[in-house]
Structures are given as C-alpha cells and as structure tokens.
Amino acid sequence: MTTTSVRRHLLASPQRVYDALVSPAAIAAWRVPASMTSEVHEFEPREGGRIRVSLTYDTPDPAGKSSRHTDTYSGRFVRLDPPRLVVEEDEFESDDPAFLGVMRITFTLTEADGGTELVAVHEGCRPASPPRTTRRAGGSRSTGWPASSSRTRV
Question: What are the Polar residues biased-composition ranges (predicted)?
C-alpha cells in the first residue's frame, strides 16, 4: 500500500471549497477524471454518512475494477470539520483482491493567498491501482481540478 499527496491552490474561500467536497451535485461534476463519467448513488455528507459513486470510462478500452468499464467505490465520511477538513474512507467494489482494501482520503483546507490551499492525502492506495486511478484529487479522482494549474478558480 502507498500514500500519495496532492496540493492545489484554489481561487475560492475555504468554505466554498469545503461545500464542493460535501455536495453530491458538485462531486458528480468535478470529482471525475476527464476520460470518465460519474454517477453518485449515495452521498450523505455527515460524519458516518455513506458514499457510493461509480466512474465509467468514456471509451471501451480501459478495464474497470468493479465491472467491465466501471470503477465503483463506496465508503463513509469519517470526519467533517467545516471549512477546514474532510476525511473519508473508500473501498473499490471488486472481485479482484488486488483492488480491495480501505483507502483514507484526508482533505485539508487552509486560507492562503486570497484563496484556499487544498492538500489531499490518500493513504492505503493499492499497488494494483496506478496513481492515476487512486489519486482522487488534483486532476484525477482526488479533486478533479486541473493538475496542470497550481492556481485554479472554483
């Protein structure tokens, strides 16, 4: 298992960024890689609240973890401390043991330079899942905000 970290400066207040992290409509729009579409099945933004999301590849080439072209993960919110912190634990739904196991994602938000510094730490990433599919923040599944920009408007 590995740990990855992504850091982004966002041109929005910590409250606005926090709101985007706990909104099912916002999650469906931005927390998905460019090559996939998202469906939010369950999303209860409260401590202990459930999360279940499917990400489906736009093209038929890539193999999914949960079904032929889909990655579905489910989990729960562990801690919510508005507007500074969101901690969730997620696990891919898969028959392949290489993809199983809980990943903890800690989003820390700090006011900085007229916006928000977002740090997303992903603990427990599986070796079978390359970083582009487990780093659900920062231009991939972590935040979906462009990886090529260090200052992004929300």
Answer: 145-154
Q: Is residue 146 in a domain? A: no
0.90 exceeded by pTM: no
Distances (CA, A) of 90 to 52, 86, 149: 9, 13, 26
Is residue 148 in some structural domain? no
Q: Model confidence over 90-133: pLDDT tens digits?
A: 999 999 998 899 999 999 999 999 999 999 999 998 876 654 44
- The CATH code of the domain that includes 61 is 3.30.530.20
Residue type for position 51: I
Residue among 132, 151, 103 nearest 7 (CA): 151
Tell which residue, 15, 45, 11, 10, has the closest CA to residue 27: 45
- Tell whether 147 is covered by a domain: no
55 — alpha (psi -120 to 50), left (phi > 0) or beta?
beta
Closest CA to 113 of 3, 1, 11, 4: 11
Give the CA distances from residue 85 to residues 19, 67, 101, 129, 135, in Å, rounded to whole numbers and listed in that order: 11, 32, 23, 25, 17
pLDDT, tens only, 47-94: 999 999 999 999 877 788 899 889 999 999 999 999 999 999 999 999
